[in-house]
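Lecture 7 notes: from sequence to structure.
We start with the chain below.
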Amino acid sequence: MSDTVYFNIAGFSIKIVFQKTIDTFAYKRIKRDILDLLQGFIAVYTEKIDYTIEFIDPGFIQTLFKPKKQTTYTLLYHRTQQKIVTFYYLSIFQFQSLLQSTLLYLLNANKGFMVHCSAILIDEKAHVFLGVSGAGKSTIVKFLYNSYPIIADDQLIIRKENNEYYCYPSPYREKVSWIIKNRKRYPLKGMYFLQKSKKYYISKTSDLDPIVKLIFNQIYTDHQFKKNQASITMKFIFDFGKFYSLSFGKNRKKVLSLISNSSAG
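Predicted structure tokens for the same chain:
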């Protein structure tokens, strides 16, 4: 007899089915780890399922040996259009890779993308911070987390729904433990490109060239969806338009004041 758990991630209904197995230890281990990872995304039964992930007992670890390379590959899953069949010997880290592949597939088909960024909520609206490595994506949310809810320190999902853009927390573990992980969606209010500086200011930017370059460098994608993902991202850049340059330094009080005054305006 199978055991089924439903999740809602980025607005997608995902069903995970645990088929009967004699290896109760492996079943309990992977189910426990998945429920721990996705506890904020557990949902009730729904007839509309966007994707199914099914765990089965293969009886043995399935491998493929390449003699010329002297390399052995372990089979992790079989994929069809709306379903993945995987195995109880999967680790939670391999499951996260499988889940990311699933989400990228669903986002590609539903006007969405996953971006490397940090983000806060102001009045239940998402303000997203992007930048090159070392620009301060983690630093700025550390300055702000006592004053504003944090919904991302590494990854965020953005989708276009009913001609508006919404942000969803990603299901993955972040760098810190106080990041909000839930099924809610938040309207995207603004996207800020970070620069470390001795000056503190926010200014609207309309120069598309650096915006395109920076956003494309921060997008998670799969090579098979690259062309369509580029189209989705370019449409977002042209449609959204609320892009800002944000310069800040190491003074936490000045950063708080800058964000507070900007949101009030």
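Points to note: Residues 38 and 261 are 35 Å apart (CA to CA). The longest strand covers residues 186-196.
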